[in-house]
Design goal:
This protein is an alpha+beta fold. It has 13 helices and 17 strands. It has helices spanning 24-39, 62-70, 86-99, 114-122, 147-151, 157-171, 176-195, 208-212, 243-249, 281-294, 311-321, 347-362, 450-458; strands at 6-15, 48-51, 76-79, 105-113, 217-220, 222-223, 233-242, 258-266, 303-305, 365-372, 377-384, 405-406, 411-422, 428-436, 442-447, 465-471, 474-478. Helix 1 (24-39) packs across helix 2 (62-70) and helix 10 crosses helix 11 (311-321). The radius of gyration is 22 Å and the shape is globular.
Length: 479
């Protein structure tokens, strides 16, 4: 084997339930040291330190502060942008640098302490964490929301993903109740995985009925128990090294996990611009490229972790790669973002660390997927205890062509997808639509009348002809 072949030889996770808990820097240090210890690698020896963006706190020098804590002087440093695919991109970049002989070891680490932030907020106290950035940098978007999305308050994932869910529901001819039943059946086994995962945030097994009934809607038709839980205190880290260094460290061959191949693809950045709201050509392209690079197929996978922030992310992936949502292998090795925990941009480090442990224990191949932004970014990675394949890189293997969006519009339209926003007490507040326009293109619209909001939740609204009027920068639909 080429001594530059990259392999994962150390991984660590930490979940903190006591509140208030430690700050992200403390968590970074803890899991970094644990992952390096498992690898048998002194932390001061690290060639590269890469950190996944944290929503919890903006440090003045994130990588610098961690390197100082560890006593390391890495030649390569990186801090990611906001995205659920960021761990994939950092790992892929580290593996490529190792394969090119530029590095011989790298740490990729991430942490969130959003539960602790909430605890301080509820106590009316300021967060007493160290080394704040001054001035505070802008949020780590790769690009901000479209002005029409901002005008229509369509920037929360619980609304954008729900719109895509209703579009898929209509395209598949499902009733409202049938979609909820199938969602519960798909996600209930995930709660059982989380219940057995010591690192999971929610460790209670639930029945399908408990997941979709008897708990409040957050963005209709999504209930609180079927969406990612972000306010968690969790951290994860992985250590990758060149095989030559793994040899010198005495790591057995069956304890090395290889990135056989990975790929990245993009849908449109704006949900309303998707060629098809309920499906994704980009997912299929990313999966095909990753499997081709790995020299393996879906049937070869011993374990799967499909990104699960919302049901539509699971469903679009299953549709695209022809995976049965009730596949006996299961859709997750952690329990998924709604149950194991969805620590902002960092979940994939947890699924990768868990997958690595599973493969090191039993051998074989595993698929780990990631999603970024509003089902915009897709990353597929194949891990294996058997070396081989071709790494791939972050160049998109597919980029969707957007449908034009009208900022304001007046006239007839047809509902393409929709949701009803609910407040913290569970009451419906307004409908949010994506509508098809005559002659092509799309627009956003609000539904403000109480009777129409109730109607939207009582039946299938996709396909409904509506009349849109403009009030300032906001379109309002009636029927």
């Amino acid at each position: 084997m080429d001594p530059r072949t990259p392999c994962l030889i150390g991984a660590a996770q930490r979940t903190v339930r006591e509140q208030p808990g430690p700050e992200p820097l403390d968590l970074w240090e803890e899991v970094a040291r644990a992952a390096a210890a498992e690898a048998g690698l002194p932390v001061e020896r690290l060639d590269s330190i890469q950190i996944v963006y944290t929503d919890s706190w903006q440090y003045d020098s994130p990588v610098g502060r961690l390197a100082e804590r560890l006593g390391a002087a890495p030649r390569h440093r990186a801090y990611s942008a906001v995205s659920g695919t960021s761990p994939h991109l950092l790992i892929g970049a580290a593996a490529a640098r190792i394969a090119a002989g530029e590095l011989d070891c790298a740490l990729v680490v991430g942490a969130e302490a959003l539960a602790t932030r909430r605890a301080y907020r509820q106590a009316g106290e300021h967060v007493p964490w160290s080394h704040p950035a001054d001035p505070k940098p802008p949020y780590g978007w790769e690009r901000p929301p479209h002005p029409a999305e901002l005008a229509h308050e369509l920037f929360l994932p619980v609304h954008t993903y729900a719109i895509m869910e209703t579009a898929r529901r209509a395209a598949h001819g499902l009733t409202i109740e049938r979609e909820m039943l199938e969602r519960g059946r798909m996600m209930a086994p995930m709660t059982e995985v989380a219940a057995a995962n010591p690192h999971a945030w929610r460790r209670t097994a639930r029945t399908p009925g408990e997941l979709v009934h008897g708990n409040r809607f957050v963005g209709w038709p999504y209930t609180r128990n079927t969406v990612a839980v972000m306010e968690v205190d969790q951290a994860a880290a992985v250590v990758l090294v060149a095989s030559g260094l793994a040899d010198r460290l005495g790591v057995p061959a069956d304890q090395r996990v290889h990135l056989r191949g990975w790929a990245y693809a993009e849908d449109t950045w704006e949900v309303a611009a998707r060629p098809a709201l309920g499906s994704s050509e980009a997912i299929g392209a990313a999966a095909r490229a990753a499997f081709e690079r790995a020299g393996l197929g879906l049937d070869d996978m011993n374990a799967l972790d499909v990104y699960s922030c919302f049901a539509i992310a699971l469903r679009q992936a299953c549709d695209a790669i022809k995976l049965d949502p009730l596949d006996p292998r299961g859709l997750t090795v952690t329990g998924g973002l709604p149950y194991a925990g969805g620590p902002a941009s960092n979940y994939v480090l947890h699924s990768t660390a868990t997958m690595a442990g599973l493969l090191r224990a039993q051998g074989g191949h595993g698929l780990v997927t990631g999603v970024g932004m509003h089902l915009t970014k897709h990353a597929y990675a194949i891990w294996s205890t058997e070396p081989g394949g071709t790494l791939g890189d972050a160049a998109p293997v597919f980029t969707a062509t957007p449908v034009p969006i009208a900022d304001v519009y007046q006239g007839p339209a047809v509902v393409a997808g929709y949701t009803v926003a609910h407040g913290r007490e569970g009451a419906p507040e307004k409908g949010i639509l994506v509508v098809d326009l005559p002659g092509g293109g799309r627009a956003h619209a609000h539904v403000l009348r109480d009777d129409l909001i109730a109607d939207a939740e009582s039946r299938e609204l996709v396909g409904q002809r509506v009349t849109v009027a403009t009030e300032g920068k906001v379109n309002v639909a009636t029927w």
